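Tokens as discussed.
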């Protein structure tokens, strides 16, 4: 069992930055690929970015490439999402997820979500 707890969301002006953190419980953190999804009102949840077990491989949705950076610290059981040059369309609830297979069709575990609001 893995529990994921996100933190770091909030309200920021367009062009600003936020850093999200996701702390995982348990000793198996390093065996999971980790990802960040987001869901805006009236829209489906989408995969924003993901990172492999060892951190050597990453994926970014086109909408966030060059602005968001995912990283992980396996010693601290934590994954981070650095968000820069934020836009109003980045407003959403951001969810941390863990996926043993790294396919992201049905993640094994989800966090509770943290709200990110970007004002124009």
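Sequence:
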């Amino acid at each position: 069992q893995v529990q994921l707890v996100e933190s770091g969301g909030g309200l920021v002006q367009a062009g600003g930055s936020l850093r999200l953190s996701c702390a995982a419980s348990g000793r198996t953190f390093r065996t999971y690929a980790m990802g960040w999804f987001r869901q805006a009102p009236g829209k489906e949840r989408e995969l924003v970015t993901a990172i492999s077990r060892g951190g050597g491989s990453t994926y970014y949705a086109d909408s966030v490439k060059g602005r968001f950076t995912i990283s992980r610290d396996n010693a601290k059981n934590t994954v981070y999402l650095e968000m820069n040059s934020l836009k109003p369309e980045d407003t959403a609830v951001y969810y941390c997820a863990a996926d043993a297979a790294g396919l992201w069709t049905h993640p094994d575990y989800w966090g509770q979500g943290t709200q990110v609001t970007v004002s124009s």
